[in-house]
Amino acid sequence: MTSAHKSFLTGEVKALIGVETEWSAYSEPISPSETRRFVHAIMDDNRLYYDEAYARGTKYKDVVCPPLYASFTFRRAHGTPDPLDRLKTDRDWDAYGGGGAGRQTLPRVPHGFERMVNGGSEIDLYKRLQPGKRVRTKVRYHDIRERMGKTGPMAIVITETDFQDDDGDIVARARQTAIFR
Q1: CA–CA separation, 109 vs 97, rounded Å?
Q2: pTM value surpassing 0.90
């Protein structure tokens, strides 16, 4: 960083690394109908996702959800507020913070930048979800960095989300990178 630039990486910001939310449960168990709609959307007609007789003959012994399903299944409970309603009164809200539709959010990183771009996502898959199971998530700040780009400084914020099933097993871990400029 140049001597003219004042870093946003204060002790307060660095202390956010590792901060996490409580576990937040999805509002309903995974339904076969919801799984079917997801399978149609991704255009994957693998019988493992819907054919019970076929699935019994596989290593899973039952119908399972597609591998990335956990990261797309969160639905807010009926009758709860739409989190995007906040945009009606706060046009600058960027919906960032590791939460989403009813999930708890992380405290905001005080970086002072105005714009955010998606820096990418990655996901590690450990176990297949099954219809009828519930999912819960916990989000944490994995890393917060500062970089100097061609047009000036930027904040790089990486959140990590654990997805856990009814059995207490972590089924997936996703990392999302947000770049603030």
Answers
A1: 8
A2: no
